[in-house]
Amino acid sequence: MEWESEHDLQLDLADYLRKCGFMTFTEVAVPGCENGRVDVVAIKPHMYASKDLRAYEVKLTKQSFYADVSKNKWYKYRGVFHRVYFAIPEGLLRKSDIPDEAGLIVRNDNGWHVVKAPKFHNPEELNINSVLALLYHGYEENKVMRRLKDRISAEENLSLSKKAHSIGHEIARRLDSTKESQIEKWCMELWDLFGKFGFEVPEKIVTCDRFSSERVHLPSIYEIENLLSGTKNLMHDLAAIKAIGKYLENLQYPEESENDTSWYSRKNNRTKALELIG
């Protein structure tokens, strides 16, 4: 894995330590370190009583490492911190290159791994000023992180809103398309039925929805009303013709007969036929 800068490696290490339960600070100027700025500071919140404050010096090149060692910069951190580590990418240094009192943590493709544990000691320069410096720096760093998270959250919410709108539009379009396909099927069956009885029907049914500019060719209410009205009138005419036939069939019989009781039924049939005809 290639790293563009020590700062990127610092942030990656800080992120790893946070996931391990440490409270972390980056690039902190701590009183007692002779004005040195520590790349990464870590302490476990639930281990204050054990007083295990850790410093990590991040190195991306051998030149930077040997320059630090030659000036004893890292050793000055032992005046405030209980443990001091060098943090490097894999393959940069050997375990034997690291000073005896310091530890080594290495980053490879699978993450960070402690290769050499540092010697624990009780720092002589650790005091209230050092702790307050960490607290103040931690507060400012946390404030920046909160603002960054809020901005990311706002951007994500806006992105989710746009995606939700897009998904909703697509669902509506598909539902509308499904509805229109059902209408199209019904329309085609209706026109086929009209065609069987000799009515003129369009050659093609064109459907669309509100997402399309194409017009829908559906039977109008006026056309359906005319067809139903004509069918109703036809049924009435058929009933009237049938009634006329019934009337004529019973017309040859007298209105009353003393010896035949069926006259009442014939009279009733004529009355009903006249009502239908009228």
UniProtKB/TrEMBL annotation:
Pfam families: MmcB-like. InterPro entries: MmcB-like. This is MmcB family DNA repair protein. It comes from Ruminiclostridium papyrosolvens DSM 2782.
